[in-house]
Amino acid sequence: MEDRREFPAFPYEPYSIQLDFMSALYQSLNKGGVAMLESPTGTGKTLSIICSALQWLIDRKQHQKTQMYSSSNLRGQQEDQLGVDDEPDWMKNYVINKDTKSPEKKTKEKKQMGFNKNFDWKGKREVVRDLITNGDGKEEDTDIEKVNNLLTKHEVEGMDEAEFLVEEYESEDENGGRSKRRGGGVSVNSSSEEEKDEDSMEDEEDEARPKIYFCSRTHSQLSQFIKELRKTKFADEVKVVCLGSRKNFCINQEVLKLGSSTQINERCLELQKSRKKEISKISKTKKTGAGGRARRSKASSGCPMLRNHKRGKEFRSEASQQGPLDIEDLVQIGHDLKTCPYYGSRSMVHTADLVVLPYQSLLSKPSRESLGLTLKDSVVIIDEAHNLADSLVSMYNSKITFSQLELVHSHLESYFMRFRNLLGPGNRRYIQIMMVLTRAFLQVLRKENCQSNFDPVSNSEGSKTGFESSMAINEFLFSHNIDNINLFKLLRYMEESNIIHKVCGYGHKLALSEEVSALKNDSQSSHDESALSGFQALANILLSLTNKDGDGRIIISRRRPKCSMQQGGYLKYVMLTGEKIFSEILNQAHAVILAGGTLQPIEETKERLFPWLPPDQLHFFSCGHIIPSENILPIVVPQGPSAHSFDFSYSVRSSSVMIQELGLLVSNLVNVVPEGMVLFFSSFDYEGQVYDAWKESGIIGRIMKKKRIFREPRRSTDVEIVLKEYKETIDALSCSSSKRDSLSSNGAILLAIVGGKVSEGINFSDGMGRCIVMVGLPYPSPADIELMERIKHIEGFDTSSGKNTKFQAERSWYSGDAQAGLYILKSCKHRGKQYYENLCMKAVNQSIGRAIRHINDYAAILLVDTRFTYDPSERSSSHSINKLPQWIKGRLVSATKNYGELHRLLHQFFKFHKGKEDNQ
């Protein structure tokens, strides 16, 4: 590979940056390991990365074909094998490790594996949803349609309780013997006929086929990537498939009405299970020679979008012919053919060269297994990787609420009381264990028990409004006398038996019977919450308790109930380290690429995800921005028009003086800033507080005389609507007469939130973002107990030994008091405090980077807080300014003497670019 090679031309400039970028990446791909590539938006970063990776994949396949051809022609001729040792390691490994098993042998081995192929006790992770939604596949299992659909009075009264009796279960012995069940073993249910065909096709395909997996955080970012990919020559040379959630793909209107992702997932799986039962019944009818045609009810016929197998084939054919398609395109094909695009896209994975998918689908091991993704010898590209470590560990968190525990315990108790004399000893024992655990968890969260096992300081602080505390796993188990329970055996029982479906079915029957026999009481809304979701939450929290003691912490939250009839609180497991999780990806993939505009400091990511990685396996490349220096004007604004200093720290930011001074600044800025202007606040609560104060004082009215005001909504579903109106307002201005009245409206202003939907993945290019205003330093709340636990873990990590030492704070602390969290930060010497500051500045960098999106773009960036002020002569690496991207820091005006100077700089900046645009 030469340093410079012929890559396809791009719609970006300058080409030299892209060529250097792609060449460095290509070299990294040949070496393997981890590549961290930092490049601001506008350099064609994402497109450069994927083109380099696709070129590498094509070259690799060509080498593979050449090697296989040479081997077949020269087999047995030892003297003609000269030069084989010069082949890359991946080439030799790929040929040597190629699976040569016949399709029949593969199928036989899959059958022998049974259900346990998705269960990994050593990794303490499994497909938990299968634990809830998949039974043993037997015809006599409870029909989930009867569990989740409201039944008529006749159906409730006529239901036979015998069908809720769980089968006999014998526990495995302590020597590792297998568990036994009456009626045979456990089988895996396919979600659809398409998945069965997918399995058969996978048997015929080479399972070690290398791929490129490209993942990003949001659906919109993936759609942008697909559009960029279509501009390259690779659009016609590689097979691409885009994966997403059921909620984004589903075209069954009855299922979509459910709204939430959890309910849509559950309903989809239930429909697939009922469809399999219907097929089984029809098959049995044919075998027994029963006359007539089997009746297919609406409740048991499965999803109508999966009934026609031929349409599934048509979907794959149509999608393959049209080239790279995003989710919207695939959904449209599904609508046209009346077939499921979710399972249709999944069936295309095994033949694809490039798989485009969201973070969670690739980083979560259960999701990878359920999708059938094989990372062996493939390239994994993770875009927007600045928060990768936190995103990764958050996927393995688990939580169960007080109301879920009450519902699960009530169901278990009712079931056990009714069937205790009919259950075998194995079932009785495990159901009782589940009741003991749920009872213990409930006691932890009840107020009358909050005085036990905790520090007196916490009780005095928490007794008023409830409090949060944290415990290690072993401490939690021992303190609540549940350390003697074998959670591994219990989880296996929940997996292999059909106890959850039976309990939920019987509990639902009782609830419906009460509704029929008595008036429905609005205050008794426990049935409205899904029992299946409660059992899934219980399984997740039990699975988390099987992790190593130092991997995470148990958060115990007791909250004041909203009324006398309710109790608040929850148990939550917080994963603290992502090293072992990410190592599974690194060990399987040939190379992993972490890309983003703000990856530094890279030491933090390395220490949290792959501290064991040898230096020669980590490659870092960074390039500057392509815009000229005159296209950006970053300024620190330490004071407002009335000469009051800006200090938006938590203790003083809510003062009327600070809010009014900010209002005066903004009402003056709208007179000099053209088109679009975006203000970033630290939280929704603070933005609301500022807006209300401005409205009362008349500042809102002054601003609206020049710019229309938009506010980022709390509901993510409304964000797109607001952004569309914001853009239309600015576009309407640009389409109007060039001779604008200086007194008329000159654009719009958007009040946005740091860390919200607007701050990441949204392009405020050109007129949508001529000025970005960062209000204060958006430090995370020190009252966040999960964050403080993570900081303590990071502070105690020893990079030399790779172990975590116990962190010692100056005093005991509990959430609900921000001052208590500050004690933790004060006790941190270096790493924990650095992590806390990095979280703040990464959020700042992501927000202010929304404005500059291409080479001709220009914008002003205002950092409004006296804490941004710094002396260039003092080279303090810990100062927040030194954590800004180099392309911003190098052009930063460190501070303005007064508002008059700020106004002059902005006026000159926008006048210069207005004249430049007029000349063009």
From TrEMBL:
Classification via SMART domains: DEXDc, DEXDc2, HELICc2
Annotated compartments: Nucleus
Residues covered by region (Disordered): 168-209, 279-319
Transmembrane segments: none
Pfam families reported for this sequence: DEAD_2, Helicase_C_2
Domain (Helicase ATP-binding): residue spans on this chain: 4-434
Alphabetic keyword roster: ATP-binding, Helicase, Hydrolase, Iron, Iron-sulfur, Isomerase, Metal-binding, Nucleotide-binding, Nucleus
Compositionally biased residues, Basic residues: 282-298
Compositional bias ranges of the Acidic residues kind: 192-207
Entry cofactors: [4Fe-4S] cluster
PANTHER family membership: ATP-DEPENDENT DNA HELICASE DDX11-RELATED (PTHR11472:SF41), DNA REPAIR DEAD HELICASE RAD3/XP-D SUBFAMILY MEMBER (PTHR11472)
Family assignment from sequence similarity: Belongs to the DEAD box helicase family. DEAH subfamily. DDX11/CHL1 sub-subfamily.
Protein name according to UniProt: Helicase ATP-binding domain-containing protein
